[in-house]
Design brief:
Layout (H helix, E strand, L loop, with lengths): L2 H10 L2 H30 L4 H6 L5 H5 L4 H6 L7 H18 L10 H29 L5 H15 L1 H11 L4 H10 L2 H9 L13 H30 L2 H8 L1 H7 L4 H30 L1 H23 L9 H32 L5 H21 L1 H8 L1 H11 L1 H5 L1 H4 L12
Helix pairs in contact: 2-7, 2-8, 2-9, 2-11, 2-14, 6-7, 6-10, 6-11, 7-18, 8-15, 8-17, 9-10, 9-15, 12-18, 13-18, 13-20, 15-16, 15-17, 16-17, 16-20, 17-18, 19-20
Length: 425
């Protein structure tokens, strides 16, 4: 057994990587509840696609979270420390707010549901601020690729709860019970928060609000230069635009194709699980060997091609009956999407983490991920209108075309094989 093999096993099965599993799961569950379970609930209760598409606007907290991230950097809650205190508070708030959805009727309380969804998005975005900072502070630069791959795959696996288990349960029990069960899956993240230690880097909090607000932006622009900073911000905005739009109405798309909620749930469980796990583990190992820049190129190509699977499925039109062949087609689309988008996201988040400075983790990470969330929020709000205007097949071809500009910017921000040296705090 070689030293390289020992190091690889030590890195993959370390305590730090286990923590990344829990951060990913806790981060992914509320988002997927909003983008998978909530649309499925609304659609099954007769809400039209235009209204469901507009629900993407509830994601605005994800795009504006950099505004209150300095406060979470500057101030600490009385218990558990600066990072862990905010983590536990946001996780408990998410558990409570997710459980409340089932008390409303989509036909009569659509505005109340929208308000509650906005509240969930706010707590989820707040949790992401501190989880991203916490993860960046426990990972060395050498661990960023693997650690963020583990985080992203756990993030995606969390989507199997609202996107699979909850849909299966929805065919067998009231929606109120479904939302309560879904909310209880926030408990593993809360237990993780209680068991881990506060990162050492987190002890050096900003002393003033000016340090918390102004210095992170000043440092980024000074380090990259104005032109370099704009290239990076443009890339962060565009890299996930196409696949974000393509998956924004995935569950309503499957329902419109004629699949039952339980069929979607069962296929998503099996076809989405193994490609995500296997692809994620391979992606993490490949990223160690390739470096983040090459991974952005290679995984990005797979990410773009995976969008075409939706167009292929849509080209058949609505199925009159769903048999083994139609379920196999759905499995191929979900599995390839899980592999492609999962790989692309892992490299993308690793790039964002690398672009932050250790001294300003929370605010810079929140700024970059907020910008990445803009397409998911604003562009996705129009997806329902676009689909009703041009149809599902043309919509997915449009999403594929919108994924190309982000790939082209890799020439500027991540040249093939030219990974920068690690930063010092």
């Amino acid at each position: 057994m070689t030293l390289a093999t020992i190091n690889w096993r030590r890195d993959v099965f370390s305590r730090t990587m286990l923590v990344c599993v829990f951060t990913g799961f806790a981060s992914g569950l509320p988002l997927y509840a909003l983008i998978n379970l909530l649309p499925a609930w609304l659609r099954s209760e007769g809400v039209d696609l235009k209204s469901i598409g507009l629900f993407a606007l509830i994601g605005l907290p994800y795009t504006w979270k950099f505004l209150w991230s300095p406060l979470m950097d500057r101030y600490a809650l009385p218990l558990l420390g600066r990072r862990r205190g905010w983590m536990l508070a946001s996780q408990l708030a998410l558990l409570a707010s997710l459980a409340v959805f089932g008390l409303f009727d989509p036909k009569q309380d659509i505005w109340s549901i929208a308000g509650l969804a906005l509240t969930v998005a706010f707590f989820s975005a707040s949790q992401d601020i501190v989880l991203d900072a916490f993860r960046r502070e426990i990972l060395s630069d050498a661990e960023l690729g693997l650690g963020n791959t583990v985080h992203i795959n756990a993030y995606r696996l969390a989507g199997l709860v609202p996107g699979s288990l909850s849909l299966i349960l929805a065919d067998r029990m009231p929606w109120g019970s479904v939302f309560v069960i879904t909310a209880l899956f926030m408990l593993p993240g809360a237990l993780m928060t209680l068991m881990v230690k506060e990162p050492k880097l987190a002890s050096g909090s900003p002393k003033t609000l000016r340090q918390a607000v102004v210095e992170p932006f000043h440092e980024f622009v000074t380090r990259q230069g104005w032109q370099g900073a704009l290239w990076i911000l443009g890339f962060i905005f565009l890299y996930k635009l196409g696949d974000s739009m393509a998956t924004s109405l995935a569950t309503p798309f499957y329902l419109d194709m004629g699949y039952a909620k339980s069929q979607i749930g069962l296929v998503a469980k099996h076809a989405g699980l193994w490609p995500a796990v296997i692809g994620g583990l391979l992606g993490g190992v490949w990223m160690i060997k390739l470096g983040i820049n090459r991974a952005l190129w290679a995984f990005g190509v797979v990410q773009v091609v995976s969008i075409l699977g939706f167009a292929w499925l849509a080209s058949y039109g609505r199925f009159d009956s769903v048999g083994a062949e139609q379920l196999a087609m759905l499995a191929v689309v979900i599995g390839f999407e899980a592999l492609g988008v999962g790989l692309g996201t892992a490299a993308f988040v690793a790039f964002i983490a690398r672009s932050t400075h250790p001294a300003y983790t929370a605010t810079q990470f929140a700024l970059f991920t907020s910008l990445a969330a803009v397409p998911r929020t604003l562009a996705n709000a129009a997806t329902g209108y676009i689909v009703e205007s041009i149809g599902w097949t043309s919509f997915f071809f449009l999403c594929t075309a919108l994924a190309i500009p982000g790939m082209m910017l890799l020439v500027k921000v991540a040249p093939w094989g030219d990974d920068p040296a690690p930063q010092q705090a």
